[in-house]
Amino acid sequence: MDPDFPLGGSVLTLRMRQLLDSLNRPGTAGEGGAWSPAVDIVETPEAVEIVAELAGITREEIKVIVDNDVVRIYGSRQPTVKRTGIHYHRMEIESGEFVRSFRIGVPFDPAGVQAKTSQGFLRITLPKLKTGKRKIEVEAV
Questions:
Q1: What sign results for the dihedral spanned by CA atoms 8, 13, 17, 19?
Q2: Per the structure, how many domains does the chain have?
Q3: What is the SS3 assignment for 54?
Q4: Which of the listed ranges 8-12, 62-66, 79-83 does the model predict with the highest average pLDDT?
Q5: What's the gap between Cα 58 and its chain centre?
Q6: Hey, what's the torsion of the CAs at 21, 18, 31, 55, to 10 degrees?
Q7: Which ranges constitute the DSSP H helices of 11-125?
Q8: CATH no. for residue 90?
Q9: Which helix (DSSP H) or strand (DSSP E) does residue 96 occupy?
Q10: Tell me: the pLDDT tens digits for 9-54?
């Protein structure tokens, strides 16, 4: 086991996983975004929650649109360093515009959607529509 990677793998393996993961994310090429922030989507008994990692982005730079069962997150992050005449040794923090789109397969109430940002994370809560079992009486015609 590599001492630098206690979970297994090498630097090359980690970079390959990151590259393949970024290729699988919609939004970079297909939707016109320059980069694609990491997102978790979880379902609770009450809601579907989307959590996006948006460090360094103010709430004014984020736009959330709900269109039927599709949730879109738009935003922009400025470069961390904006100086000319310097030599960059490494630039890993992505910047520029992004778009992420998600088709939610669970019925939710668009009027109850909430979006909050805290400590570099955007949390979108999509409350599930209340559905219940109902016995239907069959009528004779």
A1: positive
A2: 1
A3: coil
A4: 62-66
A5: 16
A6: 120
A7: 11-24
A8: 2.60.40.790
A9: strand 96-103
A10: 666 776 676 666 556 544 444 454 678 999 999 999 999 999 999 9
46: left (phi over 0), alpha (psi -120 to 50) or beta: alpha
Distances 95 to 25, 37, 56, 68, 107 between C-alpha atoms, Å: 16, 10, 10, 29, 33
In sequence order, what are the residues at sequence separation of 6 or more whose Cβ sits closer than 8 angstroms to the Cβ of residue 111? none
Alpha helix (H) ranges present in 1-129? 11-24
Considering the domain boundaries, does residue 1 fall inside one?
no
Choice between 100 and 30, residue whose per-residue pLDDT is larger: 100
Phi, psi of 18 (to 5 degrees): -65, -40
- For residue 67, is it within any domain? yes
pTM: 0.70
Residues in the chain: 141
